[in-house]
Amino acid sequence: xxxxxxxxxxxxxxxxxxxxxxxxxxxxxxxxxxxxxxxxxxxxxxxxxxxxxxxxxxxxxxxxxxxxxxxxxxxxxxxxxxxxxxx
Length: 87
Hints:
By secondary structure, this protein is mostly helical. The chain has 4 helices and no strands. The protein has helices at 9-19, 27-40, 50-66, 76-82.
């Protein structure tokens, strides 16, 4: 098994846009990540509105839900607390 690490929201967005027509099994996750990248490459997490941060939390949860079961899942409340939001 091989792992590739891509750094930077713009780079991830660019690669996802090229690959999206060919992705079959992880399409939901790819679209959610693309949406998050589009939001995060325009502003830093600190400058995003609370509404945008909540949208990103929802995208994270969607991506997490589409993964195979994992013990390390975070809840919406965990993510809100991590990002300084109150549920």
